[in-house]
Amino acid sequence: MSTTSDAVTSHTSDEMMAVAAARALSGRQRVFVGIGLPSTAANLARRTHAPDLVLIYESGALGSKPDRLPASIGDGVLAETADAVISVPEVFNYWLQPGRIDVGFLGAAQLDRFGNINTTVIGGDYHHPKVRLPGAGGAPEIAASCREVYVVVRQSSRSFVERVDFVTSFGHGRGKGDRERLGLRGAGPTLVITDLGVFRPDPETSELVLTDVHEGVAVDDVRAATGWDLAVAPDLGRTPPPTDQELTALRALKEASK
Amino acid sequence: MAEIGTLADAIGELVADGDVVALEGFTHLIPTAAGQEIIRQGRRELTLVRMTPDIVYDQLIGAGCARKLVFSWGGNPGVGSLHRFRDAVQNSWPVPLEIEEHSHAGMANRYVAGASGLPFAVLRGYVGTDLPAVTTSIKSITCPFTGEELTAVPALNPDVTVVHAQRADRNGNVQLWGLLGVQKEAVLAARRSLVTVEEVVDELTPVPGAIVLPSWAVTRVAVVPGGAHPSYAQGYSERDNAYYAAWDPISRDRDEFGRWLEQIREAA
Q: What is the largest CA-CA distance in chain B?
């Protein structure tokens, strides 16, 4: 985690990532939230520019308004502050599957150049993996059925790979048209936010392209943390650093959950 | 009618070696005490089923109670990995662990099919992922009305489902509220069921969002206050976040885990 001092207030790269991810929810209405970075970002969005954002957690909390960051998707604060508490089959069958949710907000252990996500196994083969990860959870169907998917992940050449070892959640497959061929209804990953920058799929090829770098990050830093030959958008943007208001809100959320 | 008795008697009578056992609870109302009683009674060769195997399944797996795990997400929520689970998958320690891996949507629908008396469930799921290649219980099916390709998963019908709830009345009717997870479906899908509860009361007064499992749909009830620790029972206890963090170093080390196991076995 690095710290930059030239911003309005000094901030960490993780804070920059959370703020950038929260900003991305601007104009979105209903978001299916994974725990960890996605939950931090979605709650920050609610505390800053998107007070009416509807947060849906797979544990069955529909429209949660937690006043602190939940420790897990089953944290009691999610149910106590929800518009409705529903069973898990209902979450997936009635709310996710028919396409009622705008954004699925996911994390990843590995992400590849076409936005496919691995949270299952790394190295070896499936039955004899080098590292056994927790597995799919709700992600495969979130990635399939939400109108769009945002991925938030700390970036390194180990997490950003040419090809994931296991496709837990389908992104853009091996390129343009794969989702349509499989009959997937949502647009898939339209945005990937890391601690270094922001990536979007190329409209022609669906390959992830660096479209923005965060304040204080060089394109070469991003290349070094990418496991494929990274394409960079010609009109590369620069993420504005967190404002004082954003940082204050983020730190208050984190403080409240201690 | 559900008989109200002790946890040890209920586990002794309901759970046999080789059974398919589901201890459900979606981060809330996790029947941890019942899982530890299974360890204490030394059950073996179990097929453990659960959407979100967490600490109590790590304990059962590390204790060598399981030969197979059917699941969709196995981790220590908010902390990281389950190291006894990883050791079993990566190194077959203490015994080999077969896995049958699904997604949450698939597992939830498998319980719904089981509770509904149907052989399988249909969903839009798994498409494009590598899961169907490694899990034989995920199949493609054509809709007879539209011709659309969908996914079928088989019903789950555990021999025994164990859940934890806030309370029961003296007739064994069970009431639970807060995050409901998939407990109702898991109980109704099972051949036998055990519900551990925080307390038995004279009357189940209404609580917002509560569901009731009628006594005749439950086999046994056992009063186990705090039986969901380190998870929580809304209205009775708070989630013990420190325990989840403290489990990590115990789970990482076979010897540490062995010492933990001795304590559990001695605490009758």
A: 60
What is the pTM for the complete model shown?
0.96
Over 70: is that where the pLDDT of A6 sits? no
Question: What ipTM goes with this model?
Answer: 0.95
Q: How far is CA A249 from CA A18, A43, B116, in A?
A: 11, 10, 46
Yes or no: say if B19 and B46 are a contact pair by the CB < 8 Å rule. Answer: yes
pLDDT single digits (tens) B45-95: 999 999 999 999 999 999 999 999 999 999 998 899 999 999 999 899 999
Which sign, positive or negative, has the C-alpha torsion A17, A23, A28, A29? positive
A-facing residues of B in 31-70 (CB < 8 A) are 51-52
Residues whose CB is less than 8 angstroms from the CB of residue B15 and which lie 6 or more positions away in sequence, other chains included? B21, B38, B41, B43, B46, B159, B160
pLDDT at B268: 65
Cα–Cα dist A73/B84, whole Å: 22
- Total residue count of chain B as it appears in this document: 268
Helices (H), chain A: 13-23, 37-47, 76-80, 88-90, 139-145, 178-182, 219-224, 244-256
Cα separation, A243 vs A223, whole angstroms? 27
Neighbouring-strand partners of residue A11:
A4
Is pLDDT at A131 greater than 60 in this prediction?
Answer: yes
Residues of A in Cβ contact (< 8 Å) with B104:
58, 88, 92, 136-138, 141
**Residue of chain B nearest A81, judged by CA positions:** B178
Q: What is the DSSP letter of A168?
A: S
A64, A77, A78, A92, best to mutate vs chain B, most B CBs in 10 Å: A92
